[in-house]
Write a structure and sequence with these properties.
Strand order of the largest sheet: 2-10-9-6-5-3-4
CATH topology of the largest domain: Aspartate Aminotransferase, domain 2
Bound molecules: pyridoxal-5'-phosphate
CATH class of the largest domain: Alpha Beta
Oligomer: single chain
Helix content: 25-40%
Shape: globular
Number of domains: 2
Distance between the termini: 21 Å
Structural class: alpha/beta
Order of helices and strands: EHHEHEHEHEHEEEEEHEEHHEEHEHHEH
Largest sheet: 7 strands, mixed
């Protein structure tokens, strides 16, 4: 039997055609397809602006840069995330402060964040990086209130949650990345995420000034726009105005993204079907992380909490089911330990890590595969 992985990309014939056509076009590096992908992605999440970059990590790095993170900055994030959510602060020389999770949701615990900020002298912290972990959207309305009270910016790491939403206090659906509550939102198009460009990332925002800075920093800090330059020597003239990077997305990747985006909603629909089936099957048998009532969970991951997790993981592997652990708490990784972070400091995250198990969840899973996964897990746990 073919192994069933915890996540898997899906490439359709039309995706291949889109990349093929791009290879024969006039542009291979950033060009019209990148612009089209940005416009369509911004529309998909309901934001004003979108900036495509070469991966989600570059999206995080640029976000930290344009918000002014430096050696004096302290930024709060969750320990239950991919290391990149924290690393972007380190790239800029800033200090990462991990705040513990809410054990019910595995998301950053907003009251704990508020307590942390409240107890520190004013101006200690500059920003917060919440993560819509597993596709479960953070209550951004609540977090924004905290951020505004203490003058903090927010980079929402929505790499797991394109198409996810929460319902605000007025009953309105707020899509992840629509720019209403976060200053910047980042997405990744790594093959294991909802839609893929091979490697790729996106930043969305409603803030025009941040948007302009992102464009500049994505491409060496160079501009050719006459309005933005201090002088103009002629048609060839450009100005490098700040130290930027080359984080541009190639056209082939953007073409794949445009094509994949057409199936994004269908993908979420299928993820929700699978989640519903898992919910029913594991009810009263195995504990799972379930969203509360009105949250639009995007189900990047479906997470069980099991005891004797290593045995369960190994046995499932023998039976062709390749589960994964999301995540080893970031503060316990050797690099962060070397900076002085201590195991034992974030009890909810560490307890969660001992039990979590991400079981197969991706749109191209067949009903037979879903049933096989359910049957096997029930045998094993
Ligand atoms: C995938 C991911 C990233 C990094 O994205 P890349 O495209 O792999 O660089 C950052 N944060 C989270 C939560 C992710 O899942």
């Amino acid at each position: 039997m073919k192994p069933i992985f915890y996540g898997r990309h899906y490439i359709a014939e039309e995706d291949i055609q889109a990349v093929h056509d791009t290879l024969l076009s006039d542009f291979l590096a950033q060009g019209p397809r990148v612009e089209e992908f940005e416009t369509k992605f911004a529309a998909y999440v309901g934001a004003k602006y979108a900036v495509a970059v070469m991966n989600g990590t570059a999206a995080l790095h640029l976000s930290a840069l344009v918000l002014g993170v430096n050696e004096k900055s302290k930024v709060i994030t969750t320990p239950i995330t991919f290391a990149a959510s924290a690393n972007c602060i380190r790239y800029c020389g800033g200090e990462v402060v991990f705040s513990d999770i809410d054990p019910q949701t595995a998301l950053i615990d907003i009251p704990a964040v508020e307590k942390l900020v409240q107890q520190a002298p004013a101006g200690t912290y500059q920003g917060i990086i919440p993560v819509d972990f597993a596709g479960y959207p953070v209550d951004m309305e609540h977090l924004r209130k905290v951020a505004d009270t203490y003058g903090l910016w927010i980079i929402e790491d929505a790499c797991h949650a394109p198409g996810g939403y929460f319902v605000d206090s007025s009953g309105t659906k707020q899509l992840c990345g629509n720019g209403k509550f976060s200053d910047l939102t980042v997405f990744s198009f790594h093959p294991v995420k909802h839609i893929t460009t091979g490697e790729g990332g996106m930043i969305t925002t409603n803030n025009e000034s941040l948007y302009r800075k992102l464009l500049l920093l994505r491409s060496h800090g160079i501009t050719k726009e006459p309005d933005l330059m201090s002088r103009n020597d002629g048609g060839w003239y450009y100005e490098m105005q700040t130290l930027g990077h080359n984080y541009r997305l190639p056209e082939m990747n953007a073409a794949l993204g445009i094509s994949q985006l057409k199936r994004a909603e269908a993908g979420i629909k299928r993820r929700l079907e699978i989640a519903k089936r898992y919910d029913e099957a594991f009810e009263g048998v195995v504990e799972s992380i379930k969203p509360s009532g009105s949250v639009g969970h995007a189900y990047h991951l479906y997470i069980l909490k099991v005891s004797g997790r290593k045995k369960v993981y190994d046995t499932l592997r023998e039976k062709g089911i390749f589960t994964q652990i999301h995540y080893i708490p970031v503060h316990t990784l050797p690099y962060y330990r070397s900076l002085g972070y201590k195991t034992g400091s974030l009890p909810h995250a560490e307890q969660y890590y001992r039990q979590c198990l991400s079981i197969p969840m991706y749109p191209s899973m067949t009903d037979e595969q879903v049933e096989y996964v359910i049957r096997t897990i029930k045998e094993v746990v």
